[in-house]
What we know:
Blueprint: E1 10-14, H1 25-33, E2 36-39, E3 56-59, H2 71-83, E4 88-92, H3 102-111, E5 116-119, H4 124-131, E6 144-149, H5 150-155, H6 163-167, E7 172-177, H7 183-192, E8 200-205, E9 213-218, H8 222-229, E10 235-239, E11 271-272, E12 277-279, E13 283-286, E14 305-308, E15 330-334, E16 336-337, E17 342-343, E18 350-360, E19 363-375
Amino acid sequence: MAPCEGRGPVSLVGAGPGDRGLLTVRGRERLLAADAIVCDRLAVTTLPCDLPASVELHWVGKEAGHHPVPQDEINALLVRLAREGKRVVRLKGGDPYVFGRGGEEALALSEAGVAFEVIPGVTAGVAVAAYAGVPVTHRHEAARVTFVTAHEAIRSSRCSVRWDLLAADPHATLVGYMGVTSLPDVVERLLAAGMDPATPAAMVERGTTSRQRVVTCTLSGLVDGVRREHLDAPALFVIGPTVRYATSRATASSVSVRPSCSYTGNSAARRSYARIDFQSSFSVATSSIDSGADASRAGQGGRREATRSQGRSGRRLRDPLVDPGPGDETATAWPLDHQTERPRFGSRATPGAYSSSHLMNGFLRPTMAFTISSTRPP
């Protein structure tokens, strides 16, 4: 792929639904060769552990009701980085062209004369259902599958969904992305359109990760089941006859997701970037802590502590995602602006301990500083 006059190239890469093992081979190749990565919130867990220190990381993630970086600014950022002659990867959760605004970004790049490519990813609608034990199609039971973004399907006047047609098809599977908030409206409309209240239904939270949770019941009981189990985003729902095959555990024997953070080695930016969400109560060990770093400060907030270990390689720490501790806190490493010693983004967490070590794939490794903050879920 040769860059055109507008420079580039830009790779729109699908990161998959969360399990790092589902990142495609080509997607990984592009990430390792990138000069700059523009990363979504849900794609951070798929960043390779051997990502070069020199890469620039730009966090542009969105969540419901909170878009710190508007889409127009993301488009402009991609164009600017490409025109600077950098190899740019736009890393998006799932597949870029399945409810990922990849088409909008491709159009913006095309209009700016910037060369780009699209590297498809494993879409959550198929992978999350599979990890929950649900085939989206099944011979003699489900010959069709429909993907909807529940939020837009309910609230958009320009993207109407024929609920009557969906409700009238007993041999189809309905998969809804971004469906937690809109679930009551979706269920109400399907029932009003005549769908059988006894239709099997499921909601899967954090699918394909080690924190996956599944609620299975009937369509009429789905809303109450989700509320009872306190499922939250990111989650998707699956409605249809094949949901009866669902299991409460992931079907994969191993889940490769690890708490991970990556950083930029760009000395001009002087920022390290990290975001880790995991259960607290864990011990970190490292064989090397940069001079001037106070290891004891990493123990502030909850029951966390940092200790030196014997030997060069460092000691493996228990993976809180795979084996969460008993604590009810959440530790979060946020992007840190070294000039102000404050996180780049606003957050509910209070900035806590700073460390000159770098947590990646279950090890604490020397790197630039980042912040660890602790906050109890509401």
